[in-house]
Amino acid sequence: MKILSIALGFMFIQQSFVTIGKVLPAVIAPPILLELNIDPSWLGVYVGIIAAVSLAVQAGCGSVIVRYGALRISQVTLLVTGLGLVLAMPGLIVLMVLSAIAIGISASSTPASSHLLGKYTPAKYAPLVFSIKQTSVPMGLLTAGLAGPILTDFYGWRSALMSVVGMCVLFAIVLELMRDEFDNDRDLTRKFQLSDFKGTIGLVLRQGELRSLALGCFAFVGLQTTFIAYFVIYLTELGFSLIEAGTVFSLATAVAIPGRIFWGWISSSFINPRVMLGLLAIFMFITVSLTGMFSDNWASWLIVVVSASVSATVFSWHGVTLAEAARLAPSSMRGAVTGGVLSFGQFGGLVLPLIYSLCLSITGSYQLGFFVCGVPALAVGVLLLHSTLKFKA
Length: 393
Prior knowledge:
- By secondary structure, the protein is mainly alpha-helical.
- It has helices at about 1-25, 30-35, 45-60, 60-70, 70-90, 95-105, 110-120, 125-135, 135-155, 155-175, 180, 195-205, 210-235, 240-255, 255-270, 275-290, 300-315, 320-330, 335-365, 365-390.
């Protein structure tokens, strides 16, 4: 239990820093876009590049994790996250593309941490442990939302990015302390092959339960990525200052910290995980659609409440999904199967922000895109509930 606690703590911090690095450019996007004279719709392209690279990385990282070890890959994700932020600082379009590619490579963070925790976690407590680990994401979002705008206001957006670079490099060094223990299952004979992509995706598609998880990830990650990319700039368009918008973003995402643990506990003890995911999916559609109805006539407290409701659904499903994926995977393929399921999520993270960007560029309205991007979650929710009830019958 002690080693599990250490592993959980290390993976929590690692994913928190990676999350901060991934979302900070979107959180402080208004001054970046203003200085570089970039249309806001191009933010969806930046996010889409990250998702496209993440898709490939998560689909093919299984063998790499087995060969080099989950902890080593965790260190790499921290370093490439820092590299991605450094590349964004000059403000050149070509380097922005390279920045998105580097940050996309950090997507191996989640499969690596899932592989590591799966080795030490009893099956009964997997949903709860994985949910606790995944609270690192809202913790990263909260930190980015609070600290990012303040650092940007005082020191500029480049200094805000640089502060995260330092944290990523420092913790990558700290992780080396536990490498002998955490990477003791690495297999140096394992080779990476292009067929790994086909094998991983094929395994997910062949197994019905994994396939439905993958469809859920497509809708959930896509919706989450879209919300992160455009929510802060959406609020600034409604009259919020950058610091005010970042604070609302942080207050909302903070709900996902207890939310992920709560849904994990419920799924471990009372409700079938697939039923839980189906219900969450339907409420995702409802809460995100309400977000699309915001106007300058709405009271600030009501915007915070609705945004928190989004966080309780769109940002709170991860632990349940990852625990299910790890449960269904062969023990030697936990990282590969998790990555395969999540790669469908990255495809959603590529497609839905681009759809939102298209809606924005055509209509000039931030509202419509939220509703349109919520529709896949509604469809998945109905599918998950129907398939679970059909199976029981």
